[in-house]
Amino acid sequence: MNNFIFQNPTKLIFGKDTISSLSSEIPYDKRILITFGGGSVRSNGVYDQLKEALKNHHYIEFWGIEANPDISTIRGAIELGKREKCDYILAVGGGSVIDGSKLIAAGILYDGDPWDIVLKRDWTKEKVLPLASVLTLPATGSEMNSGAVISNREKREKFAFYSKHPIVSVLDPSTTFTLPKHQIACGLADTYIHVMEQYLTTINQSPLMDRWSESILQTIIEIAPKALNGKEDYDAMSTFMLSATMALNGFTSMGVTQDWATHMIGHEITALLGLTHGHTLTIVLPGTMWVLREEKGEKILQYGKRVFGIDGDNKEETIKEIIEKTKNFFKSLGLKIKLSENGGDISTIEEISKRFRERNARYGENRSVNSEIAKEILLHVL
Amino acid sequence: MNNFIFQNPTKLIFGKDTISSLSSEIPYDKRILITFGGGSVRSNGVYDQLKEALKNHHYIEFWGIEANPDISTIRGAIELGKREKCDYILAVGGGSVIDGSKLIAAGILYDGDPWDIVLKRDWTKEKVLPLASVLTLPATGSEMNSGAVISNREKREKFAFYSKHPIVSVLDPSTTFTLPKHQIACGLADTYIHVMEQYLTTINQSPLMDRWSESILQTIIEIAPKALNGKEDYDAMSTFMLSATMALNGFTSMGVTQDWATHMIGHEITALLGLTHGHTLTIVLPGTMWVLREEKGEKILQYGKRVFGIDGDNKEETIKEIIEKTKNFFKSLGLKIKLSENGGDISTIEEISKRFRERNARYGENRSVNSEIAKEILLHVL
Description:
Two copies of one chain form a homodimer.
Chain A: E1 4-14, H1 22-25, E2 31-36, H2 40-43, H3 46-53, E3 58-62, H4 71-83, E4 88-93, H5 95-107, H6 114-120, E5 131-135, E6 147-152, E7 157-162, E8 168-171, H7 181-199, H8 207-228, H9 234-246, H10 261-273, H11 277-291, H12 293-308, H13 315-332, H14 346-358, H15 371-380
Parallel strand pairs in A: 1-8, 2-3, 2-4, 4-5, 5-8
Antiparallel strand pairs in A: 6-7
Helix pairs in contact in A: 4-5, 7-8, 7-9, 7-11, 8-9, 8-12, 10-11, 11-12, 11-13, 11-15, 12-13, 14-15
């Protein structure tokens, strides 16, 4: 096991009718900037519960943080927050709203352009405003981690930066009942592949972390059909919501190496084609697994055996079978998982490969995913 | 899944040669009271590393917090801390030292007798001094939770109370290399049964929490022989140390009910016979499982199947087999697991039953463990 430092101070308030708890969680003397995505929270009751909870607080609203939050939108929110002297941010929505709000919380206390913060990457030591969140779409884990991914559509770029954890996050699984099926599918995929990025690395680093990762994978596979069936299944949605948060809050990565090459390629697909983040990962992961089967082989076999019960004599054939099973799970979510089925073609691959070359990219656990390997991965899933 | 609130702010610094990190973790302007158990840290190098790390800090030392920390010892430490105007506590040792130090951290800021704090039980809202810890014996999880158990030998009592989490805990697995085999055995048992108290309850509350609990059980069974073999096995001891912390820090109990009846009976055995805490649990648990096989049956079957691979047609016979397997694991740790093998007899049972009756005890998930059931449990394991 590697040495590590773990700390996750976020207070999680989880369950039915918990949005009302914000009335006591947020101090009354704060000037809150509430940030929203589109208008879905107006129709699913979240907005009304929020207004009731904060009826004795001072707040202003900022609407319109889009999926893959764009720096231009965030600039607008920061301007508003500065003008209104806001000193507390409350993000209401999915991972995009929370990610964007992490940059807002940092940007209001920063004099320059917020894109500097994203490019700086590590903002963990800087002053930021306190941030709370109400999660309505389980997927990214942003509600209980310090990371955020921001897009710059003008430059067709998308980068992650790290700031502070939310102080408190409220997760009411019943707020997910009105989600479109495709968003649930992408959230399930995102959760699954967050785990894979922390798990599919060198074997025998930590037997406990391995099992905790496999637990999330098994649980997501188990509840996916129920989460997607369109009925108001509280048990399934609460398990999904808890799993998504636990998949990227540091709980499964203590003392182990991580990968994230699939994400780095996936971010480029979103930047170029506009696909939902979780969906891009289902396209890339099977390629990563196949192309990196030499370095990841032993862990792929462990994954196949423990998660799918697949065991075989021929290593290469068994790995193929495990990848096929993984692809079938993604397809069962209703996702088309070939690049060409989603608007991509050889020029997409050439562009991503060019970008990786220009920034001299070396991603993944062993820094082996460079421009050429990324191209090989993408050709495999074209 | 039940509603829940989760928050665990402790910073975990884990790995080789990490004690030196205390030099930057503890502010220089603090007057530290360092609390120790017996002298074992003098011979295993921990004390020297500590002195080096804190050479520019102001500190005084308090030695002699015993296993099952006694209120009279804690009173002495609090007096010293008050006299020396200490405003930071650093606990160095196992769970007993950390537990005792939680009461010291509370008691220095309290005007009355510290036993009041224990009897009050919930001290989470009160002011306490900041507490850091250096863990040298994996077992209780106290390094990353808010609980503590204090004994009152004069009254032959032992109760738990809840205060604040440690600010920071340093866990260097190599500090465990010099532990006596019996202490490692009791630590492994303690870890195992902490999980069981949060797991062996009503089924189908949270599939993820179930799997995370089973993961710790499987991992402890897997590494126990290596942890006990007396060689300096860093991988085994780091896995043991991480598992012990994760077994009682709230990570496996989100949204599920808990039991703790085995602990309540075990505390009485320690109070009466002086047995090590973890050891008492191995005596009681098989009795709890058997006597409560009606209410816990479905979960016992899940446990047996997933942890031991036991599956059978006859429910009662299968439960018997699962309990036997559990007992055999405890015996494999070198522990004698019958009450009568450890100085207990029918009078011990009568006394515990009497105490439960006097305090009108109703312990366990379903409040079914009263004086009579406790007696039945203990008779089963006599």
